[in-house]
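Task 17 of the worksheet. Students: predict the tertiary structure of the chain below and write it out as structure tokens. Keep your answer in the requested format; marks are given for formatting as well as content.
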Amino acid sequence: MLPSRIFFDNFLDDFDDTSFKKRMKCDIYEKDGNYNVIMDVPGFSKEDIKIECDNGVIKISCEKNEETNDEDDKKYLRRERKFEKCERSFSFGDINEEEISAEYNDGTLKLVIPKKEKVDTKKSIEIK
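Model answer:
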């Protein structure tokens, strides 16, 4: 079962209108001993996406900056695609950080996050 805390990532960001519009939609499921994340990140290239892992927390951020050419003779009436940045974080906790794999194709990012093997830590404590 997935830890419930991953579903409440950045909860207060829902109230920020600009963050809500740029929110990366995702599905997270568990299969064959792995967590799987499928995330929509349209409009970004593979080079725009950064994935970091720190103590069981996966942070996915996307950033792009459109280059402007001063010699360009275009007179823009509206310019919205110049800069865009968005990010999400998920706390899994019990993952094998060394074996995470990622794939990006047609605006969809897929992560396979292996769970750590459970070590039986059950121990009897002798009372003195």
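Marker's comment: The CA atoms of residues 103 and 112 lie 9 Å apart. The helical segments are 17-22.
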